[in-house]
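Re: How this chain folds, sequence and tokenised backbone to follow
Notation: Tokens come from a learned vocabulary of local backbone shapes, not from coordinates.
Start of record: The labelled sequence and token lines come straight after this line.
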Amino acid sequence: MMQTVTGNTLVVGAAERIDLTKAEGIEQLRQLAASEVESACVDELVRLGRKEDRALAREVGAPDERHIKCEIAAMVGEVCTLPGKFVGDLATAVGDRVAGQTGSAIAGKMAAKAAERLITNVLLPASGLSHVEQVGLLADVAAVALCPSQQGRGTKHHGSVEECAARLATRTLKEAVGAA
């Protein structure tokens, strides 16, 4: 069902030649979104020590430091669903909202870089969705793909990533009902 819905919503990713009407294309998009968010986060995380990683995990509400990347993706997905307009550069606006929610400049910087990488390297020009909707959708996909708990590699409850999975499931159901 996700393949059909995403295929209908995002059509074909021309830049990466990803055919979202096929399961392989959906998997390529998932991997690409996760890779871009992970890269954006790693750029900042390499500058931090173990103590700072733990502090950042607490600031952003991640279960532990292994969940920082998926938490950043989840926050990007969430702020893209909030009411209100994004003024100016979308990536910067997303970062500002995340920084405002968490009180963490580092989290805001990571979110801005993640959004920028999604916009630059993953955004699909043929989509019927706005850029904000696409960034939110791609960030949700990345959060689920990056989360150790969602991938069966962890036992910690990660509520914000579960919310991303719920948003994806809700979107799938809405589009499936609309397509019928």
